Amino acid sequence: ASTLRDELALLRAHDELAALLDPGRACSAIELAARPHALPFPPLLLLPLVERLRAAQPAAAPPPRVTLTAHADGLKLVLEGCPQRDDWIGPRLTQRLTTALRDLHGQPGCWFAGGTPASVIDRFYFY
User: How many other β-carbons are positioned within 10 Å of the β-carbon of residue 70?
Assistant: First the structure.
């Protein structure tokens, strides 16, 4: 089993390694306004989401941003970026995300995507 804290730590470690191998590569911007605690989170899912988002962005775009904030109803994890395609996540990762969140939390997943324009998915919210 994995936790959100574990997955954020994995993302940071991945970014640190990527920066060593490719010093010009922009790393993810991770902003933690709340402590991630031991909230169960699907293992090895956050990293592929961020990497897919990064790959779908133009080269000059800022790196994807991952923000964690606390709210009355729980923690909110937001992924932000500016993909050039509205299908950047792909059907396999969408299915994996939906299934993993359902299996972990007993429902099809408390997540949604939105952006501007409506055809471009640029934000994910996990509750």
Answer: 13
Is the Cβ–Cβ distance between 59 and 38 less than 8 Å?
no
Closest CA to 104 of 113, 94, 96: 96
Instruction: Tell me the C-alpha distance between 46 and 51, whole Å.
Output: 9
Closest CA to 113 of 122, 104, 102, 105: 122
Enter the tokens of residue 28: 């993810």
The model's pTM = 0.79
Give 38's DSSP letter.
T
pLDDT tens column, 40-98: 888 998 899 889 888 888 888 888 888 887 777 667 777 888 888 777 888 898 888 87
